[in-house]
Amino acid sequence: MNKPKIYIDGQAGTTGLQILERLKEREDLELILIAQADRKDPEKRKECFAKADLAFLCLPDQAAIEAVSLAEGTSTKIIDASTAHRTSWVYGFPELDPDQRKKIKEAKYVANPGCHATGFISIVHPLIQANLIKPDISIHAFSLTGYSGGGKSMIQQYEGDQENDLLKSPAIYGLSMQHKHIPEMQKISGLSRKPLFTPIVDDYYNGMLVSIQFELDARQVFEVLNKAYQDQPLIEVEFGNNSFLYANAMRNTDHLKLYVHGNEEQTIVCASFDNLGKGACGAAIQNMNIMLGFEETKGLR
Ligand SMILES: NC(=O)C1=CN([C@@H]2O[C@H](COP(=O)(O)OP(=O)(O)OC[C@H]3O[C@@H](n4cnc5c(N)ncnc54)[C@H](OP(=O)(O)O)[C@@H]3O)[C@@H](O)[C@H]2O)C=CC1
Ligand SMILES: CC(=O)N[C@@H](CCC(=O)OP(=O)(O)O)C(=O)O
After folding, report:
1. Which residue ranges form the domains of the chain, and what is each CATH number?
2. 3-state SS string over 37-86?
């Protein structure tokens, strides 16, 4: 049987490089490599797209939109890691609904979820589906992330400027209240109201913790989430009694762990995972496996 041919547009970037390194270990795929000097040459990239059965876009939003036009007229399937198509293409979160895997399998175009959005949706969507919260609820989420979430430029900033004490403390951003993940958080979760969202970046490489508080019975929240994910190989739910949750606890894995803490009146739910794992590369490989008919968790860790 011919091995599926895979092209990664943006293979020198943070997300693209990690997908490339991980797929190099797979003997059931053939990788299409592009010379470093040609990586922004539209003609060379077009040739790569034409040869590929499936391509990953690991590019800034505008470049991802342009890349789709380079692949036009081909039968190449595309997984876009950028924000550009997340509210228009099939959403690449297989655990979302019972029919989401089928949608991903049959799609030509799949949008890989945003990292913060992955944690947010994994908590809010099942609670709305179970009618535990209403779609018009006002939700405030905050999310801690490592600096690799900001790609090459942020990595350079944190690793290049060791003298800057400000970078050694957590920083709130998204202060315009228009973080780029808010539209997908709202649409995919099924909220009629825009959520409030506070992202926080800190001085560590990878790992994240998305947290949301509710005035609900913690046991009831746990039961709903546990039921929603009981058959999902990459998502676990725990009723916790931890004193601390560390934002990099799930680094270098492709799993997502939901912790429910609280009492009869108040609940905090935290989604712990790797921004580059289930938040990006791991999810992208999971989607690729589904789209190409491989075992879903092949090559995941
Ligand atoms: N980092 C993360 O945790 C996550 C990132 N994402 C998304 O994945 C995408 C890639 O992010 P990330 O890997 O972090 O970003 P990086 O900045 O690390 O990498 C982007 C890559 O795209 C290349 N590039 C930029 N413009 C073009 C162009 N016009 N044509 C071809 N190549 C181009 C860059 O080239 P050059 O080498 O010259 O800089 C770079 O290699 C983004 O949309 C990001 O939002 C999604 C989830 C998580
Ligand atoms: C630290 C940092 O800047 N993180 C990025 C998110 C990275 C990511 O997942 O965003 P996309 O998938 O949408 O590209 C941010 O908050 O904008």
Report:
1. 5-112+279-292 (3.40.50.720), 115-275 (3.30.360.10)
2. HHCCCHHHHHHHHHHCCEEEECCCHHHHHHHHHHCCCCCCEEEECCCCCC
